[in-house]
Amino acid sequence: MIYKDKTKPIRERAEHLLSLMTLEEKVGQLIQPFGWQTYEHIDGKIELSESFKQQVADGGVGSLYGVLRADPWTGVTLESGLSPRQGAEAVNEIQRYAIEHSRLGIPILIGEECSHGHMAIGATVFPVPLSLGSTWNVDLYREMCRAVALETRSQGGAVTYSPVLDVVRDPRWGRTEECFGEDAYLIGEMAVASVEGLQGSSMDSEDSVAATLKHFVGYGSSEGGRNAGPVHMGRRELLEVDLLPFRKAVEAGAASIMPAYNEIDGVPCTTNTDLLDGVLRGEWGFDGMVITDCGAIDMLASGHDVAGDGRDAAVQAIEAGIDMEMSGEMFGKHLLEAVRSGQLDQAVVDQAVRRVLTLKFRLGLFESPYADPDKAERVIGSAEHAQLARKIAGEGIVLLKNEGGVLPLSKSAGTIAVIGPNADAGYNQLGDYTSPQPKSKVTTVLGGVRGKLAAAPERVLYAPGCRIKGESKEGFELALSCAEQADTVVMVLGGSSARDFGEGSIDLKTGASKVTGNAESDMDCGEGIDRLSLKLSGVQLELIQEIHKLGKPLIVVYINGRPIAEPWIDEHADAILEAWYPGQEGGHAIADILFGDVNPSGRLTISIPKHVGQLPVYYNGKRSRGKRYLEADSQPRYPFGYGLSYTQFKYANLSVGPETILPNGSVNVAVEVTNAGERSGTEVVQLYVTDVASVVTRPAKELKGFRKIELAPGETRLVEFTVGAEELQYIGQDYKPVVEPGEFVIHVGSHVNETLSAKLIVREG
């Protein structure tokens, strides 16, 4: 049997297997039912469902989604879910049955969510992508992706639905937390690191998984910041901005892509042949698998309304280039009859099956379909991965304000009141797409501060004050009492993407946990949770205003999934830390920075506006968009690339050489960066390019390079960049990349609005 011979080329193996398959078996390879519904976990034993066994008998199952996923949607809890060892054993049971009870013994592709850690019980919960982007540390993120791949593959997961490469244009969008930020260049750098980290040197190794790029494309530019809303975008912007990170990741070898829910200029991405066939496969040469998002094909007939019924939707999707359907409902119901009736050419089905089989061969599933329970138990949630999560969280935290040097705090003196709804709410610092967690696994800010002052626990006071949402002020009295007794107040405010995990809530009057049958959800961010405002929810602002009246030093820590626009806090807080959702080790990482054990090095990858009415406020908008409103200018409160340190960095002697080049030439850009303070620190050196005059309008500045460097006190380092056609080009009038002769300005500095500048001339070739 050629397809079982690992010495044969993958193409030959796939073609041979395809030639042996019935139409039913082919269609089976294109569907992906929900994995958690294939088994029951009873008294520590795995029992496969009869419906799954029937699917195997009827032609097989190509893939399963979320076999190991645990959250309120799946209904899988800490009590009913699987441990790392049990998860690997469950996948083995599923694979063994599919292989041994099907005619051709084709293994199942197990797909899992892993945007900031494998979404399975026991897996390490890393910071969300918005925090990962704020690290500006590509190498560290790649290392994290290797850890995520190891944990996932050890349980049998072979493909992940990450990275998210959407460019955020309106942070009211609930999925902002899942993205790296607002800049396509930076997202592209993270995208390449993700593919390299997840897929490793070879996808058939025991510590690699296939990466799925999503959401292709424009998903972060939806109308009004509403999830899956229409996107109004010209082709030039689409090619130049939103498609750039995807192109970079495809060039890096990404194995899979997921189209977005949205439409662009009236065409749903699920059936956009210009993008899926023309750009992706035609221009870029992508030869991997394309899988829908959950329910996307159904939306064609009931949502976008471009299909008359389910069969029409399924046919449109597969003809446009969709290879597999997440959930499998529409393909499973309609493809067989569509082929038999002549509505769909079987060759189209064959092409999709060929791509699915090819991915399985590339992953080595035919040779090694089973997980290693011993390894899963050993590596998942390991101490090493927890330390990595802590380091990444620390590098992603952004110091926005530090008036009078109130930070870092002293470990040897003073009483600290830790107050706020996110001070001791573990789930609130994890973000969406997170599995259930035992309380002991997540360190909150309160836990982190107590850990630093373990020798003097009486120096730490705590009160929740209020909830994220709701109008109750019953916790104000305790919060004010704690603040009055303290020398310094740390207010932990923000948002929550925590779905209802049923763990109860906090008694605002005492700060104690209340375990009830009806947990109160504080969720105000996450998928499907879009907002009209960027203000703090509930009465959080009123709480901090009352505490401010006491006249104590006031430090704000934001834990949240989108920017917060609260001018009063910006003006009145002594210090502000933006921590985003920092993951399971977030409390430790925040405490490390509060007490100076870690010097903050995070920098914003998304502009924070003064007011929601400024939106869109991303830094690289067109120069023609105007300078101010009647009430205020159009500048954000905190610009792209911004972030403070406990030391100071100075830039000098920027040079660009040669000063004149041809369109296909390149220059060396060099700048001296000095740590002018008394502490070691890490700086993010950022390079921007301005095209002074061009045939097509351009942004004022565009990020085209960055370096993260560590400097000792007094140390100076020469930081160098190469700028060439890739950094100077734009999409011209013919929708092709062009480097236009003329004047450019090269900017290097600490953020987009604080740079040194030098001129560069590109002359005619």
Automatic annotation (TrEMBL):
Source species: Fontibacillus phaseoli
Protein name, per record: Beta-glucosidase
Protein family: Belongs to the glycosyl hydrolase 3 family.
GO terms of molecular function: beta-glucosidase activity
InterPro entries registered for this protein in UniProt: Cellulose_Degrad_GH3 (IPR051915), Fn3-like (IPR026891), GH (IPR017853), Glyco_hydro_3_C (IPR002772), Glyco_hydro_3_C_sf (IPR036881), Glyco_hydro_3_N (IPR001764), Glyco_hydro_3_N_sf (IPR036962), Ig-like_fold (IPR013783)
SMART domains: Fn3_like
Fibronectin type III-like domain span: 683-752
PANTHER family per the UniProt record, alphabetical: BETA-XYLOSIDASE (PTHR30620:SF123), PERIPLASMIC BETA-GLUCOSIDASE-RELATED (PTHR30620)
Alphabetical keyword list: Hydrolase
GO biological process: glucan catabolic process
The keyword Hydrolase belongs to this UniProt entry's keyword annotation: yes
